Amino acid sequence: AQKVTQAQTEISVVEKEDVTLDCVYETRDTTYYLFWYKQPPSGELVFLIRRNSFDEQNEISGRYSWNFQKSTSSFNFTITASQVVDSAVYFCALTPYSGAGSYQLTFGKGTKLSVIP
Amino acid sequence: DGGITQSPKYLFRKEGQNVTLSCEQNLNHDAMYWYRQDPGQGLRLIYYSQIVNDFQKGDIAEGYSVSREKKESFPLTVTSAQKNPTAFYLCASRTGAGSGNTIYFGEGSWLTVV
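YS: structure for the whole thing
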């Protein structure tokens, strides 16, 4: 069984502050993918990043960065110098990597981020 | 433009009626998915299809049905057997292994029972 836990239900920050969204996962699979998605008020889920379990390099994309630590089963997401447009619900998700598998995503319950101007 | 199109965006259903949500993709993806989202909850898998004319139940398939007659289309029918259908429904499709098996989503459909 797989599980994704996003312990932070809601976070509020003032614009330009840095903020980290936590994601902890459980899986028995040795290889898997981790994802982060952004859901703005319009509802669409926007893909942000995919990370393979065998690649533990951290990644930076503009103001976004991701810290993957296999030893603690965590895949945290940091937004630097937050902006109002970052206000959204952010989901962490997990799927096993299994060649011809179905790649069904298991989602956390999401963290609602509010950036206050 | 390539993408996943869901329609309608908003749908109202009377109790006892079946309704069908449309999902079309022009990304040439083989696999497609339907997820349900309830307020304050993560997404839960209803059905998925890895290839035309084949589909599998997800975690909450009861009261729903799907078809996959064309690669581009994966419609979801919410039947009268679904006891609590009011929710946000998201369709998704997946790239192949060469692109990292990444799952992309449509804009979603809001279904309300009146």
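YS: worth flagging: The mean pLDDT of chain B is 92.
IM: good catch. Also Residues 48 and 56 of chain B are 5 Å apart (CA to CA).
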